[in-house]
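Hi R.,

Here's the input for the adenosine-5'-triphosphate complex you asked about:
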Amino acid sequence: MDNTFLQTFKIQGGNIYNAGKASTEIKAILKQLGINAKIVRRVAIASYEAEMNVVMYAKQATLKFEVSPSQISITVEDEGPGIPDVGLAMQEGYSTATPEMREMGFGAGMGLPNIKKNSDYLKIESILGKGTKVTITLNVN
Amino acid sequence: MYGEFHTIKFVSELCDGHMHCMRICPTQAIRVRNKKALLLEDRCIDCGECVRVCPNNAIIAMTSSFKDFSKFKYTIALPSPAFYAQFGKDTTPSLILEAFKKIGFDDAYDVACASEAVSIAIQEYLDTNKSPRPLISSFCPAIVQLIQIRYPNLLDHLIPIESPMEIAAREAKNLKMKETGLKASEIGAIYITPCPAKMLTIKNPLRKKHSFIDGAIAMHDIYPTLLQAIAQSNGSNDFKEVQGLGLGWPIVGGQVACLKAEDCLAVGGITDSVRILEDIENDKLKNIQYVECHSCPTACVGGTLAVENPYIARGRVLRMVKKYGSTPCQDREKIRGLYQKNFFSLTGKIPPHPVQPLDEEISKAIEKMQKKQGIHDKLPKIDCGACGSPTCLSFAEDVVLERVTLDDCIFVAIKKFEKLSSELLETVLRHSEKIDSNIEIITS
Ligand SMILES: Nc1ncnc2c1ncn2[C@@H]1O[C@H](COP(=O)(O)OP(=O)(O)OP(=O)(O)O)[C@@H](O)[C@H]1O
Ligand code: SF4
Ligand SMILES: [Mg+2]
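And here is the predicted structure with adenosine-5'-triphosphate in place:
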């Protein structure tokens, strides 16, 4: 991937006010690059869900956003509790969201399944007590 | 977009390059070059915010004037329900309608009642259609354009229901054709508009061929004449008082108040509309049925061409709704029947109109994006606007697209100047040793 645009974003855990900002910027960049609207929407949904999981469950994270002519990838690496059972977390409806989070409209347990649905490749690596790394890739064509 | 035109015009001779418009434009569609504002047409959504703030009145809203309608044998005024809120509390909607007949119109026709009918149609659509949620109101042309430009994914969410303005004009024309024996083309339906944006849907409607409206006069243009006519009126009035919840349509939440569906939102202003549209695009609001979206922060009572303070006008609407809202002006079953006969439906797709990408070719676009990022990194990021672009990021883009050069940023220029002057000073000092020693050079 020689011709690659790269931008990184910092995401703060617990910061609901700024939640979704990285995804918004990513969307704006993709639109400016002339990426097909349907793909932009899939990236938007996937990156938004990944970003929100950091805001909800982790301390902080770096989101690395890369675009090449053939691929879009988003890597979110957080410092946080980690996910004890990734297979379980991937199941639709599974959630450990607190009542407060549910009050705000989160906790349907659909975030990770939605990322899966809206990406061409998804990898989740997690170390308990250290953090989680979510890698999402989409093909441009 | 509604075509290759906009409803606002920049008058270059009047422009002093104040930048008020550039700073307020919610889509960053304005630049100031050589002390003149200019419009990037592919980004303009005709919201009219620039018209409001220009201290020189150098930005004109393109509406019709009364003489444009001399070709019609019969003219009907259709005031936006927002117009009712521009007058004092004793001036009821029926008195306002009556006054139009005194200032040269042959008749007037109420639009609020059509708003109630459209609300019933929206509810029917929500109840019987499975299209993607939330549905978004399609009655503010500026919002429709915003979606065409920035949110092409959401075009399918725009509710395909005819606007109250069109429904009312169609009814008024049919009625008058029967009454007078005139042809449709001989009857002019003239909207009294709160904003230039409505002109878009009149000149070039989406999802249909022709508008039933023949032109629109700005609320603030007709207001003084009408006010005088009302003051001189002897109180005679052929109109029944306007009733129903349609009276609430020109304020934020007015549409939603007419619906039975509970999971609805109402939002005013581009900044907040953008936040909601972003959420919808991120699939976050799927539980919401209907979103009422207005470009103007206070919706149409505070349109660009309104007269009254928007909050006072809003208060008046609330009072009208309290007094006249509880009696419906439409028969729900009749409207449902009409709905089933497609009386309200619009067909066809709204085309997307995305802003030009940095380059048509993706690898070149990526290169330009890298360049833009590189330039932006070097800029002070204080969005001072002195370069004539609204933000440092938009300036970086303008440099990449070769609309300006990097030196147009005063901070870059100063640095360059500093470097140049210190080089110059060095040269001078070097030579001064050879020059007569009684020339004193002050450094620092
Ligand atoms: N970055 C993370 N760090 C720690 N735990 C996580 C992280 N991301 C997800 N999880 C865990 O996985 C579960 C499922 O996540 P998912 O995003 O699918 O649903 P949710 O966040 O609970 O609800 P929703 O995304 O629908 O609002 C979460 O409840 C949480 O326990
Ligand atoms: S909110 Fe109303 S007045 Fe304002 S631009 Fe939209 S339609 Fe026009
Ligand atoms: Mg989640």
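One thing worth noting: The interface with chain B takes residues 3-5, 7, 20, 23-24, 27, 29, 31-35, 37-38, 40-41, 44-45, 48, 67-69, 105, 114, 140 of chain A (CB under 8 Å).

Cheers,
M.
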